[in-house]
Amino acid sequence: MAPDKATALCGVARNAAALLLALSRCDRRAADAAFSGVPFDEEGCEDAAETSYDAANAKLSGCPSCLNAVGLRMMIRSLDDAGNGSVYCASPGGAFLDGLD
After folding, report:
1. CA torsion, points 49, 54, 55, 60, in degrees to nearest 10?
2. What residues contact residue 12 under an 8 Å CB cut-off, 6+ apart?
3. What distance lies between CA 12 and its chain's CA centroid?
4. Total domain count for the chain?
5. Which of 2, 26, 72, 99 is most exposed, with minimal Cβ within 10 Å?
6. Helical H runs in the chain?
7. For all residues of the chain together, what is the average pLDDT?
8. Could you tell me if residue 97 is inside a domain?
9. Taking 60 as the threshold, does the pLDDT of residue 37 lie above it?
């Protein structure tokens, strides 16, 4: 919860939520493409999502000086990447399942 109204109106939380949603969409599109045999540039998609996040944050004003929007972006992408193993726990080639008889 924001400590005051000015911080709440800053907008970084909204941009962070949009970034997470965009990254999740990239993950989903990559998974769909893998099963369809269609090439998809997941890293390019995620980079574009980050660029949009940075551009949206550049337009903000009134944010607290302690805010580290770049650090937040890096943390969100890292958590998204780490979470993929939980969402897509079975590898298409069976690499994670080999030997589990």
Report:
1. 130
2. 57, 60, 63, 67, 69, 72
3. 14
4. 1
5. 99
6. 5-8, 12-36, 42-58, 69-87
7. 85
8. no
9. yes
- What pLDDT is stored for residue 67 in this prediction? 87
Cα separation, 75 vs 93, in Å, equals 29
The share of the chain scoring above pLDDT 70, in percent, equals: 86
Domain annotation covers residue 100: no
Segment 34-41 long-range contacts (CB within 8 Å, at least 24 positions apart): 34/92, 35/92
pLDDT for residue 38 is more than 80: yes
pTM for this model (two decimals): 0.79
Residue 49 lies in a domain: yes
Q: How far apart are CA 90 and CA 35, in angstroms?
A: 13
In the numeric block, which tokens belong to residue 74? 């890096």
Domain residues for the domain of 66 are 5-87
User: Considering the domain boundaries, does residue 64 fall inside one?
Assistant: yes
For the beta carbon of residue 57, count every other beta carbon within 10 angstroms. 20
